[in-house]
Amino acid sequence: MLPAWWVSHAEQDWSSPAFRAFFELLAKQHTVVRYDRLGVGMSDRERDAVTPEAEYADFEALVNHLGCERLALLGMSYGVCPAVRYAALHPDRVQPPRPVWQLHHRA
């Protein structure tokens, strides 16, 4: 699960060779969930608040909607805060962290 970063556009990321290769590498071992934050990319432009609390609430709602019982988190840029908060509040649902370089080496 990748909490959305600051300026994102999932469709544009997929068309970028670098991002596409990165997501394809992740997808070899994981189901990758990538989404746009509300107000940017392909998401709705209307939103009530742009706060860390609202970002976390959106992320948690998505996790619950997808029915994720356990997940690996990869927080980048603006997505770090929701990822860390989720891991702190739900340690039983988050897989132990692995350095990104381990994606190249099956651990």
Rounded radius of gyration (Å): 14 Å
Assign an overall shape: globular
Query: What structural class should be given to the helix and strand makeup?
Result: mainly alpha
Rounded to the nearest angstrom, the distance between the terminal CA atoms is: 19 Å
Name the average pLDDT.
79
Number of helices: 4
Q: Into which percentage range does the β-strand content fall?
A: under 5%
Kindly give the count of domains: 1
Textual characterization of the structure:
This protein has 107 residues and is mainly α. It has one domain. The protein has four helices and no strands. It starts with 9 loop residues before the first helix and ends in an 18-residue tail after the last helix. The model is unreliable at 102-107 (pLDDT under 50).
Features of this protein?
single chain, 107 residues, mainly alpha, 4 helices, 39% helix, globular, disordered C terminus
How do the helices and strands line up, and which of them pair or pack?
Elements: H1 10-15, H2 17-27, H3 52-66, H4 80-89
Helix pairs in contact: 3-4
Brief overview:
The chain has 107 residues and is mainly α.
